[in-house]
Specification:
Elements lengths: L4 H14 L9 E8 L2 E5 L8 E5 L4 E7 L4 E5 L11 E8 L1 E4 L7 E2 L16 E4 L22 H6 L9 E4 L5 H10 L6 E8 L3 H13 L6 E6 L5 H19 L4 E7 L1 H14 L13 H9 L3 E2 L8 E9 L8 H9 L2 E5 L1 H5 L12 E2 L8 H7 L2 H15 L7 H16 L10 H12 L11 H15 L1 H10 L5 H14 L6
Helix pairs in contact: 5-6, 7-8, 10-13, 11-12, 13-15, 14-16
Length: 503
């Protein structure tokens, strides 16, 4: 059999043409210890802080401790399949999550993977979960109100777009309800909402999602959840994943509201990770950088300058207190980072004052400048009235004979407390809030029985919709209070038709 030289040369030429000389270099290390969701690896000398690393079984890890001889890795998934001697390689990527419109209406975990059973998420963009907060010159002052629809908040502790307002209180005092009502009230307000549930029972999160769906709020909301049964790293990452998703919209000129429910559980998860990584513990066994954990998260909330599109990201972080102790470590840390706090008191909650907002301890440091003029006018003296009422109330328990001025103050105070009560998932538009607060401050409710006040408010709102829609439209469109004569005429006209409960 003769060999054709031409055939051989053709084959050799083909082989040379198809030869790919690219050399792939990858940093590979070896797992030296593993346990409790933490692994230590040797040989990853060039790993970056926060870099994603891949174990030989496909599970991902996050580089945390960069030590001289080894790297401490937080395992993002089941760690039972990883053993000593396994190979681990660098990916060269910092932890990222998918972002964009495709996430709206979905429930995802902190890695951006859908967990609502509705198939994959159609989005091509992603963002790193850690990002630099906007600098001083990239921001502008808060000047636009974020209407929560909750009278006690919009009147006493207003929130502006781009603000960070802490919601603090014991467990079971209605913190989540405040957040859910605020999200429901953003319908038709050109606002995207992100609800981050940290360490909650899955049944609780499911209930919240169903509530949002029932009120049509899920269409503009992303729910990020790290459940109570999830490993600590996911609880630690959840808020950062939520804010990264929000930043995508903010830098595109949109307005975003992010709710972190709650940061106490994130701090506890971070403490667990830090102790397992053998970092030195500090006060209450928290690591020394627990302040930085929350400050670098909350500083990313901002109202951007017009040059950057004028978008905003408003943060509502939650912190749970133990027996109302707001001087504990995590509460004081977060209070010092935020622009004010809304304190929910269990005593008020159990006595039927809901939302249970303590006006004396609650404050908004910037929201007042974003309040509409009409609300500023009618709610100006409300906080002082409420504070003096609480003081008088405790004194009046000791004496029976009170002078007329004191009696009048107590009567007004009781009616103020009643007006600020609000039903579950019933946010109120700002123009109707202005009307009832005007009626209260001008004394129209002083001769009504306290138990009639909420019915009076409800019936007045219906009457105004039918008989004086132009008055409501004027407050809504201009943000200013109409003439006193118009306001008084409307309230008096309705009051003539109102039937008080017969004794």
């Amino acid at each position: 059999m003769s060999i054709n030289a031409e055939e051989i040369s053709t084959l050799i030429k083909k082989q040379i043409e198809s030869y790919d000389s690219d050399i792939e270099v990858s940093d590979v290390g070896t797992v030296i210890t593993v346990g409790d969701g933490i692994a230590r690896a040797h040989g990853l000398d060039n790993a970056m802080a926060g870099e994603l690393l891949e174990f030989s079984n496909g599970v991902m890890g996050l580089a945390q401790n960069l030590e001289e001889s080894n790297v401490g890795i937080v395992i993002l998934g089941p760690y039972t399949g990883i053993k000593e001697g396994d190979e681990i390689r660098r990916t060269g990527r910092i932890m990222q999550v998918p972002v964009g419109e495709g996430l709206l209406g979905r429930v995802v975990n902190p890695l951006g993977q859908p967990i609502d059973g509705r198939g994959p998420i159609e989005t091509t963009k992603s963002r790193p979960i850690e990002a630099q907060a906007p600098g001083v010159m990239d921001r502008k002052s808060v000047d636009e109100p974020l209407q929560t629809g909750i009278k006690a908040i919009d009147a006493l502790v207003p929130i502006g777009r781009g603000q960070r307002e802490l919601i603090i209180g014991d467990r079971q005092t209605g913190k989540t309800t405040v957040a859910v009502d605020t999200i429901i009230n953003q319908k038709d307000q050109d606002m995207i909402c992100i609800y981050v549930a940290i360490g909650q029972k899955e049944s609780t999160v499911r209930g919240t999602v169903e509530t949002l769906r029932r009120y049509g709020a899920l269409d503009y909301t992303i729910v990020v959840t790290a459940g109570a049964s999830d490993p600590a790293p996911l609880l630690y990452l959840a808020p950062y994943a939520g804010v990264a998703m929000g930043e995508e919209f903010m830098y595109n000129g949109k307005h975003v509201l992010v709710v972190y429910d709650d940061l106490s559980k994130q701090a506890t998860a971070y403490r667990e990770l830090s102790l397992l990584l053998r970092r030195p513990p500090g006060r209450e066994a928290f690591p020394g950088d627990v302040f930085y954990l929350h400050s670098r998260l909350l500083e990313r909330a901002a109202k951007l300058s017009d040059a950057l599109g004028g978008g905003s990201l408003t943060a509502l972080p939650f912190v749970e207190t133990q027996a109302g102790d707001i001087a504990a470590y995590i509460p004081t840390n977060v209070i010092s980072i935020t622009d004010g706090q809304i304190f929910l008191q269990s005593d008020l909650f159990f006595s039927g004052v809901r939302p249970a907002i303590n006006a004396g301890l609650s404050v908004s440091r910037v929201g007042g400048s974003a309040q509409i003029k009409a609300m500023k006018k009618v709610a100006g003296t409300l906080r002082l009235d409420l504070a003096s009422f609480r003081e008088l109330e405790s004194f009046s328990q000791f004496g029976s004979d009170l002078d007329k001025a004191t009696q009048a103050k107590l009567n007004r105070g009781e009616r103020t407390v009643e007006v600020l009560k609000q039903g579950l998932h019933k946010p109120l538009v700002v123009e109707k809030q202005v009307m009832i607060l005007y009626a209260l401050t001008k004394g129209f409710l002083d001769d009504l029985a306290v138990e009639d006040i909420l019915r009076f408010e409800s019936e007045m709102n219906t009457w105004l919709d039918s008989n004086r829609p132009e008055l409501l439209a004027s407050i809504r469109d201009t943000g200013k209070l109409p003439e006193d004569s118009e306001m008084k005429d409307a309230i008096e006209s309705f009051k003539h038709t109102f039937l008080p409960t017969s004794n």
